[in-house]
Amino acid sequence: MQRFLQITSLSFRLHLLLGLSLLTSVSLAADNVLTLSVNGVDEALKRNILAHLGAMPDSEVQRRAFLFNVEDNVTTALQSMGYYHGEVEDHLVEKDKGPWELTLTVKAGEPVKIQWVDINFSGEMLDDRAFDKWLADVNIKPGDTLNHGMYSDVKSQLVTLALARGYFDGEFTESQIKINRDLNTAQISLHFNSGARYHFGQVSFEGHTLEPDILTKLIPFKEDASYSTRRVSALNRQLLDTGYFSNIKVIPQLDLAKDNQLPVKVELTNKASHSIELGLGGDIGQSSDKTFDPRVRVTWRTPQINKYGHSQETSLEWSPDRPKFLTTYTIPLTHPLDDQLKIRLGLQRDKYGVTQIYEPENRDFRNTGQLESTKYLLGLLRQQRLDNQWLMSYSLDAIREEYTQSDVDYNPSFYLAGINFSKTTRGDNSLDPKSGYRQTYSLDYADPYLGSETRLARLQAKFKWIDTFFDNHRIVARMDLAANLANEDELALIPPSLRYFAGGDQTIRGYGYQELGPYLDYIDADGNVNREVIGGRYLMVGSVEYQYYVTPTWRVATFVDAGNAFDNNQFEPVVSVGGGIHWISPIGPIKLDLGVGLKETDTIDRSWRIHLTMGTEL
Q1: Tens digit of pLDDT for each residue in 264-295?
Q2: Does the residue 380 lie in any domain?
């Protein structure tokens, strides 16, 4: 499977190196005036002391000011972390040449312990469970060492939550820390009155050319619903997902609020009428002859064709043997995102499996190419999101495919009626989710009474599971199951695009794209023995991958893939193992993997493949 990679910036590394150079020069300048060492405290206190002391001086004037304030700054740093009986001894070595040397020996003393914490709520927030959850997670409790920074964080968290939940008139009626230096105890009081909660008023949209009803359906809350920033973000996300707009501003108008009703103004900027995207890429070693297969893709998008929100996307991809054309016209129905009709028109030339000829002098088969087909597609698909968040789609596809198998030309036509259900659950909304689960089930049916070449039922189920343990350890597992139910005498009439093959970065790494599957031998017109991988009626492949985050943006991985495409009583599983390195880029993970096939089949030698892929795994 091909991937296209776009390089958007080459200047980042140069800017980073320049920044490091400047940082180094500043450090050297400071060292020429004063050097500092802090002893007697643990690393946490030391970092806090250095933070309160601030930047090192880089002139004699700054040095005098720095030395004058050292004791006060260290005392403040100690008290901010609950040490009110600290002592500081300073030793300064003045030099005629070179930097002066300042050594601080700090004795923190016994810390102040929290005796009790009094957090009291009043107002409508008493009926809001979000504050109960926040209160259960508060990380200040009796017996802890007093930390002014943590106290400030708690206050900030409470105010932030109140604003996020629409309590714009909330205020602290009491917020203080009482410290008894003799007993080394502290008493914390936080009393907060939320007042009344605001509700959403009218939502108005500006700067668009759509029918107003289309945008109204995107509002994920009703008028007079309780305000929350989560609902504001949901509206922003809905508008963004339509693809109509290049800029979106959702503005709660607090200054226009009346009777706790908060109007919302949405400022929109339409995307350009047309956009063209160029992609360059290639497959290395994916074909049977293991050559480099260059690819060029041009994608033309019209995000909004008319005031009813129609859109189109046309993709033209060129490669020497696999040109593809697909245009999709999308019409919103009852909801711009959750109910869409898609009209698809496509042309695709593709290659499958391996074709070989037997050479008596070598007593072996030699690769001569692959099974080639040309597919014409006209399809209708309606896609709906159900209330339980399942995505349901039903479709009707008209397919005509031309191919030559065993020296016989075929051009069957199929009219496939299909239904598909899928659901994706993500632990977070990032491009590299820490956890998640995807399940997909589909059924397609074709019948001669409806104009198809033969009767065919296609059943498919796909699963992917992701979980992360102990922050840095990530597991990705997947399984694909599929079956074609058809008359055995008419299998040759099922086109290659509807059969099952294995191999490639989405099934079994270490083998080429779609080169694995059942084969047949036949005698050609010249009397030669030929062998051809024609695909199977069934597919069973699975994978388990372990990933370890070396840094938040880099990880290493190792994996095992297994399975194959097969026919009745012919399951011959193959296994590949490998590993790779992944970069979690701003546009999603970019993965460079090496897969090694562990098994030699009747048509494929033991092989290895390098796979470069990009995009989220869910």
Answers
A1: 999 999 999 999 998 876 655 444 455 566 77
A2: yes
